[in-house]
């Protein structure tokens, strides 16, 4: 059996930056399992996995346009502190979920300057070329339910860098099970499993509109004095 759409491969992998820094991994003992062909991995990695068989190992370099995208300066914004209603102390490194027109978006505070805060909605690996070292551990048939939902069900399922699944349980890269889980939020997509191992998604929310993080000029029926509340 070879990897193809609607099959469920399990992969072991390591993800490194161009500088050789290890940003995410899943060992053979705890591989990442995902539904192939449903945007659950970054495009460059999923394309490289197509047609691979159990036991095959390979390396692939993924450029930003097939990974986490180029760094977008428009995703960095300075906003007033009072939009983070309910958060007593704001610190660099704190992560929030922005409610955007395209869905929830993890953002991080990069600067606290008096009454203003700078937030960045870029993925932590945006603009970087990544090296994936991969081994195909197993391949199985997907269930009809998994195909209907667009993601696998189970302990080690993930979305490795692709789009977050509806089964709340980071997208961020292969990174280790991306089903809203946020293993490390890198590599394959980040493993969004809703567990926020990476801390990509903290428990706080703020709003984001028009492709910017935390736009204080709210549209679509939001008022100008709308605040960011805890989840």
Automatic annotation (TrEMBL):
The keyword Isomerase applies. The keyword Cytoplasm applies. GO terms for biological process: protein refolding. InterPro entries: PPIase_dom_sf, PPIase_FKBP_dom. It holds the Pfam family FKBP_C. Keywords: Chaperone, Cytoplasm, Isomerase, Rotamase. Its EC number is 5.2.1.8. It comes from the Bacteria. Residues 6-95 form the PPIase FKBP-type domain. GO terms for molecular function: peptidyl-prolyl cis-trans isomerase activity. It catalyses: [protein]-peptidylproline (omega=180) = [protein]-peptidylproline (omega=0). GO terms for cellular component: cytoplasm. Also involved in hydrogenase metallocenter assembly, probably by participating in the nickel insertion step. This function in hydrogenase biosynthesis requires chaperone activity and the presence of the metal-binding domain, but not PPIase activity. PANTHER family: FKBP-TYPE PEPTIDYL-PROLYL CIS-TRANS ISOMERASE SLYD (PTHR47861). This is Peptidyl-prolyl cis-trans isomerase. It comes from Bibersteinia trehalosi Y31.
């Amino acid at each position: 059996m070879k990897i193809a759409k609607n099959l469920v491969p399990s992969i072991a992998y390591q993800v490194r930056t161009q500088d050789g820094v290890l940003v995410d991994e899943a060992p053979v003992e705890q591989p990442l399992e995902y539904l192939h062909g449903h945007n659950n991995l970054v495009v460059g990695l999923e394309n490289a996995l197509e047609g691979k068989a159990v036991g095959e190992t390979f390396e692939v370099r993924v450029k930003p346009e097939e990974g986490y995208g180029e760094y977008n300066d428009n995703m960095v914004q300075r906003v007033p502190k009072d939009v983070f209603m309910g958060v007593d102390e704001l610190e660099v490194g704190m992560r929030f979920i922005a409610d955007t027109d395209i869905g929830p978006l993890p953002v991080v505070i990069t600067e606290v300057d008096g009454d203003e805060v700078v937030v960045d909605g870029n993925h932590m690996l945006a603009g970087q070329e990544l090296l994936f070292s991969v081994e195909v551990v197993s391949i199985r048939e997907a269930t009809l339910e998994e195909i209907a939902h667009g993601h696998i069900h189970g302990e080690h399922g993930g979305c490795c860098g692709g789009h977050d699944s509806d089964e709340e349980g980071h997208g961020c890269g292969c990174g280790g099970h991306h089903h809203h889980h946020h293993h490390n939020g890198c590599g394959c997509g980040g493993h969004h499993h809703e567990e926020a191992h990476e801390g990509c998604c903290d428990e706080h929310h703020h709003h984001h509109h028009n492709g910017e993080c935390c736009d204080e000029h709210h549209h679509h029926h939001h008022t100008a004095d709308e605040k960011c509340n805890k989840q």
